[in-house]
Design brief:
This protein has about 300 residues and is mainly beta. The chain has two domains: about 120 residues, Carboxypeptidase-like, regulatory domain (Immunoglobulin-like, Sandwich); about 140 residues, Immunoglobulin-like. It contains two helices and 23 strands. The strands form seven sheets. It has a four-stranded antiparallel β-sheet, with no helix packed on it. Strand 15 and strand 16 form a beta hairpin. The longest helix is centred in the N-terminal third of the chain and has 36 residues. The protein is elongated, with a radius of gyration of 31 Å. It starts with a helix and ends with a strand. About 25% of the residues are buried.
């Protein structure tokens, strides 16, 4: 009996030993996989406040790191509550876009973090109220490259984001009495890509309404930019356009008439001649369209 017990005990110990060796092998494999998966580097973001030309200072900054080629990963979000903005973050190897912005923005600004590889700031374009600064500052970069075991410092100049104004002045001909104007301005943006501070070009149509065009012949918009038809990547089919639907009084009756004007050439004129782009004024001449009663002629010119 004792010999059998010793043999059984020996076999039992061998089983446990084999089991432990198996577990150690699995753990070693897991460790090797972890090492491969966790190749990473360290980046420190340093805002250059000494060169900042803005009118205000942030009290809190959010940073969004977007891995450009790893679309399955969520952005790495880092908060800095000091307002200084110096942070150090460990990131998996890759190429990143950084959207950094202050959180104490104007109450009119909506920050959208659901967009692809960026954060977008949106603001009301119309009706235009007394000018209030966005109080929006970005500390961003379009490319940060992280290699394995990297320890890098990225110095970034903070930039205050500013908006522009676009004003339409309506000049109807003497033979037209307009009771109301409903319009669409397709060619201007009211949103900002916080990676680069430029207009976010996925959103462009601005709708407006003028209830008393007899006494109020102006409409003003707050915008981030206008379309640039000659820009790289601008779709060949895309046009910047002003569309108006008018309620016109004729012979004691109210009629609806429509008109359109392509703004591509005017926008090119603005950019080519470097018209001050913080205040753009366009004159909109409205006249009867002889061939079709339901249409009007629009002619838009740039104020210089």
């Amino acid at each position: 009996m004792s010999n059998i017990s010793k043999e059984e005990g020996f076999m039992s110990k061998n089983k446990w030993l084999l089991f432990l060796l198996y577990i150690m092998g699995v753990c070693a494999a897991c460790t090797n996989e972890d090492v491969v998966r966790r190749k990473e580097g360290e980046v420190t973001i340093v805002p250059l406040w000494e060169n900042y030309a803005g009118r205000f200072r942030p009290d809190k900054i959010n940073y969004y790191f977007y891995n450009i080629y790893d679309h399955s990963s969520f952005p790495v979000v880092v908060e800095d509550s000091t307002g200084i903005g110096v942070i150090t973050q460990v990131l998996p190897v890759g190429i990143y876009r950084l959207a950094g912005y202050n959180t104490n923005v104007s109450a009119d600004v909506i920050l959208d973090t659901t967009k692809y590889l960026t954060v977008v700031a949106k603001f009301p374009s119309y009706p235009y109220t007394d000018y209030v600064p966005l109080n929006l500052c970005i500390i961003s970069s379009e490319e940060i490259i992280i290699y394995d075991k990297d320890v890098i410092t990225k110095e970034i100049l903070p930039v205050e984001v500013k908006t522009k104004s676009l004003e339409l002045i309506f000049r109807p001909s003497e033979d037209i009495t307009i009771n109301q104007i409903n319009g669409t301005l397709d060619g201007a943006f009211a949103s900002i890509n916080l990676v680069n501070g430029r207009a976010f070009e996925d959103e462009s149509d601005i709708f407006f309404k003028v209830d008393d065009p007899v006494n109020n012949k102006k409409v003003k918009f707050r915008i981030s930019d206008v379309y640039s038809p000659s820009a790289v990547g601008f779709p060949s089919y895309k046009e910047s356009k002003l569309s108006l639907t008018l309620e016109v009084k004729e012979g004691g009756k109210t009629k609806t008439k429509k008109g359109e004007f392509i703004l591509n050439d005017i926008i090119e004129d603005i950019r080519t001649n470097k018209i001050p782009d913080d205040a753009i004024t366009l004159y909109v001449d409205i006249s009867s369209y002889k061939k079709l009663e339901e249409k009007v002629n629009l002619d838009v010119t740039l104020s210089r």
